[in-house]
Amino acid sequence: MLPRSAAGDRNPWLIAVVVSIATFMEVLDTTIANVALRHIAGSLAADADESTWILTSYLVSNAIVLPISGWLANVIGRKRFYMICVGLFTLSSFMCAVSTSLDMMIVARVLQGIGGGGMAPTEQSIFADTFPPEKRAQAFAIYGLTVVSAPAIGPVMGGWITDNLSWHWVFLINLPVGLLSLTLVGWLVTEPELLRRERRELLDKGLNVDVFGFVLVVLGFGALQICLDRFELDDGFASVFISSLAAISAVSLMTLAVWEWVHPQPVVDVRLLRHRGFAICCGLMFLVGFMLISTTQLLPQMSQTLMGYDATTAGLTLGVGGIASLLLMPVVGFVTGRKIQPKWLILMAILGVSWSMLRAASLDIDIGFWTISTTRMTQVMWMPFLFIPISTVAYVGLPPAENNEASALINLMRNLGGSFGVSYVTNMLQERGQFHHERLAEHITAYNGYGWTTPLAPVDAMVQAQASIMSYLDVFWLLGMLALIVAPAALLLPKVPRRPAAGH
Questions:
Q1: Coil, strand, or helix at residue 336?
Q2: Which end of the chain has fewer CB within 10 Å, C or N?
Q3: Element (H, E) at 216
Q4: Contact 472, 361 (CB under 8 A)
């Protein structure tokens, strides 16, 4: 048994499943609430602009907790910290469900984000400590099921719930899952003696709390998340509010990087980025979040606004891709490190993502349900080939005692990638839509059949629809080119220990 294993004398695969339950719930919740937002806003008497704070409040508190979750796990104890996070997330989910005002909902979402922020990094740290390097790929296949498939399932489930039940059930479904997770983790997961000893040593020598670093984390990541989430709604850098947030975030994060590099007990261990493989993995995980989360929003939004799909049907367009990811996860876990080095799988996957995005750039406004669904499948079928090898190679060469901090950083990069991706896609759709509308409108004259007697409303609707679909195609093309540019970075990754063949 590994000295840092959370399995104790139990089967490590059982522990892997147990700690994945709550993380799946948390990742699912990040997308399931998006679909129900309009219904929630109507019930709470909030307008469209105010309702976005229901999403922003969660993302901000989540972004603040993520980078310091490794430090908190070391100070509080990994198992205890994980259970606190699950408990807080479950309780705040109930608070969300019974909210009667926008203010009450925002407070509950802030608490929910705090609880959710610590779950995924702690789970990944448990996986890294419980499985030896040659078996981590298969273990991370289970973890990947939560991170890659949950965003695809979320809109489907959220759409069905809002269409058939009420928005309250978006949050109430977390209660039985959270209670089950708390029961099983408390019963089955072990806090190994080595981790308890390290915690005692840390506390005995005096806990030098990095208060200034924590303040910089709150200012830097909090301001950054609000800036990204509100960028398009508040007119981007033309807004004093957005420009101020961007400046605060930039100064805080640059100061944080320098401060944490020299601090003896940093809340965010940026010194881990000295390891070349880990630094590259953080960048590639940012790409995973950027592509996965932004396109998870892109296709359902396109199908609802241009094809007139309801929430359930729009969510189902992601279903085929989710099934493909589920089927491929164990396959990728099996081959990673056994026959093929992760960097070759990662290179293939990035090129595959690029191809799928460029292929999507050739769609037109007359596409049907299955065309959208298969387009999504070709986009996300590569994600297991990215997520599992990146998660596996990230810990190569790192001291085992740093696994908590490493997990926090790499999960932070995935979440930041998602936030940047959604903000970028939203802003580009707005800009390119206006651009194409202006270019198309220039050609609407009496000389091509549109005279003074032609009703303007139907003509403008056609122009608007064409401009919208062209803006979506532009975004797909830009995402495809971004993946193509990033692809060579995979070649710089280190090798991982080969997993011995069965029977040897």
A1: strand
A2: C
A3: helix 211-230
A4: no
Query: Considering the chain, what is the average pLDDT of its residues?
Result: 81
pLDDT digits (tens, 9 = 90+) for 99-116: 888 888 889 999 998 998
Torsion of CA 455, 456, 457, 463, to 10 degrees: 130
Q: What are phi and psi of 369, to 5 degrees?
A: -60, -50
Give the position of tokens 């010194």.
Answer: 271
Residue 354's pLDDT is what?
92
Furthest CA-CA distance within the chain: 85
User: Which residues 6+ apart lie within 8 Å of 205 measured at CB?
Assistant: none
Q: How far is CA 484 from CA 180, 354, 358, 493, in A?
A: 43, 6, 10, 17
User: Given the structure tokens 């400590």, which residue do they identify?
Assistant: 129
Distance CA 8, CA 188 (A): 9
CA separation, residue 212 to residues 69, 245, 254 (Å): 16, 19, 13
Phi, psi angle pair for 317, to nearest 5°: -60, -20
Tokens 């001291």, residue located: 399
| CB-based contact 475:426 (threshold 8 Å) | no
Coil, strand or helix at 340: strand
- Residue 336 pairs with which residues in a beta bridge? 340
Q: Is the pLDDT of residue 457 over 70?
A: no
**DSSP H stretches of helix in 307-382:** 311-316, 319-335, 342-360, 369-380
Q: Which of the 8 DSSP states describes residue 426?
A: H
- What angle in degrees, to the nearest 10, is found between the helix axes of 48-76 and 119-130? 40
Residue 94 clears pLDDT 90, i.e. is over it: yes
pLDDT band at 20 (very low <50, low <70, confident <90, very high): confident
Given the structure tokens 């709604």, which residue do they identify? 233
Give Cβ neighbours of residue 445 (< 8 Å, ≥ 6 apart). none
Report the alpha-carbon distance of residue 226 to residue 113 in Å, rounded. 14
